[in-house]
Amino acid sequence: MVRAADDKQARNLVVLDLRGRTLMTDYLLLCSGTSQVHIRTIADHLVETMKRSGAPGIRVEGYDAARWVLMDYQDVIAHVMAADERDYYNLEGIWADAPRIPIEAGELATQTAADSV
User: Fold this and answer.
1) With contact defined as beta carbons under 8 Å apart, do 14 and 90 qualify?
2) Cβ distance 38 to 26 under 8 Å?
3) CA 100 to CA 95: how far, in whole Å?
4) Is 20 exposed, middle or buried, given 0-12, 13-18 or 19+ CB atoms closer than 10 A?
5) Is residue 85 part of a domain?
């Protein structure tokens, strides 16, 4: 998913490892888009990438407004947000105790646990 978001020039990519911290998901992918069109483009590409990979069903919220699009893949929840929404809701702050999975040069560092992200 990180590569797919990076393919569409998502900004400020962050992956948080929430395993053992919540039952809702294992990972959060957070990224920003520069406009509503950009946010939808990133979201569309993530959905297509996950479909091609055979990921189970998805729940998408916020697509029409394209200020904060949430895509729930059970083990991974992706948030594509406008920068001001991301600053306001501060999900990184809420999950400040969660380890960040390193992203180098727009791609995940090689970690087997992160291969599904």
Assistant:
1) no
2) no
3) 10
4) exposed
5) yes
- pTM of the complete model: 0.86
Task: Read off the pLDDT of residues 45-93 as tens digits, 9 standing for 90 and up.
Answer: 999 999 999 887 789 999 999 999 999 998 999 999 999 999 999 999 9
* Confidence at residue 103, expressed as pLDDT on a 0 to 100 scale: 83
In this structure, how many other beta carbons lie within 10 angstroms of the beta carbon of residue 74? 13
**How many domains does the structure of the chain reveal?**
1
Domain extent at residue 99: 2-103
Q: Is the pLDDT of residue 115 over 60?
A: no
Contact 67, 59 (CB under 8 A): no
Beta bridge partners, 71, equal 60, 78
Bridge-partner residues for 29, per DSSP? 15, 78
d(C-alpha 5, C-alpha 24), whole Å: 22
